[in-house]
Design brief:
Order of helices and strands: HHHHHHHHHHHHH
Strand content: under 5%
Oligomer: single chain
Shape: globular
Largest sheet: none
Number of strands: 0
Distance between the termini: 58 Å
Structural class: mainly alpha
Length: 230
């Protein structure tokens, strides 16, 4: 284990709360284990670490992130994602391969959504051509996690969303019975409805017969809460 990894490992380990960890694990039906650090506390801890501890050298970063992804508790992976995102100004085009590997390492909804919004979205803005090539490959991948990433990575783009790519990613998977893929479809449409509800409403109406019921319900949830659906 690299020195930086050891230092952060013990800082996070000291915040372990077994009772909270058990509750968090129950929410995921025992699929994942946690240190038990609540979101607000975790975010504050990350800010404190990045403000007070020297960052590792650029040539060490991938190895360190891999180490964080080798631990069982999800918070270590979350830290690895945040750490890699800190180096985005130094990302190279070839880093998309490393990003793909991260998505597929101990994958779950939590890390997939995190990587989609914190890393893939940023990479797409930096290197749109090569990112698009990979994203289009992910759309038809056998991996539910790569499919979900391709569908969700524009979560934070708002009015800059590439609707053609969003529609392509959803339409290619719209008849899927995969729970993760349908969850991603619903989440992506719900998020975009906050920026362009008319586009989302039109999309849902036009594809209603093909869409999974739960994906459809999630897609219109925000619009329904704002009474935008007549």
């Amino acid at each position: 284990m690299k020195e930086y990894t050891k230092k952060i490992y013990y800082l996070l380990e000291k915040r372990r709360d077994n009772l909270t960890a058990q509750t968090m694990s129950k929410i995921t039906k025992g699929e994942y284990v946690f240190l038990g650090i609540k979101t607000k506390e975790f975010n504050e801890l990350i800010k404190d670490i990045f403000s007070n501890y020297p960052l590792p050298k650029c040539n060490e970063i991938k190895g360190i992130v891999r180490e964080f992804f080798s631990f069982d508790e999800r918070e270590f992976m979350y830290f690895g994602i945040e750490l890699f995102a800190m180096y985005k100004k130094m990302w190279q085009k070839t880093d998309i391969v490393f990003i793909e590997n991260l998505i597929l390492t101990h994958p779950g909804w939590d890390t997939t959504e995190y990587i989609s919004t914190e890393i893939v979205s940023q990479f797409y803005e930096m290197y749109p051509r090569i990112a698009s090539e990979f994203i289009k490959a992910w759309i038809t991948s056998k991996s539910q996690w790569l499919k979900a990433t391709a569908i969700m990575f524009q979560h934070t783009f708002k009015d800059k969303t590439n609707t053609e790519l969003l529609a392509e990613s959803i339409n290619s998977n719209i008849s899927s019975d995969n729970k993760i893929v349908n969850r991603a479809i619903g989440a992506a449409l719900r998020n975009y409805s906050k920026s362009n509800y008319k586009w989302v409403l039109d999309f849902v109406v036009q594809n209603s017969s093909k869409m999974n019921k739960k994906a459809k319900q999630e897609a219109i949830k925000w619009m329904d809460s704002k009474k935008l659906i007549k």
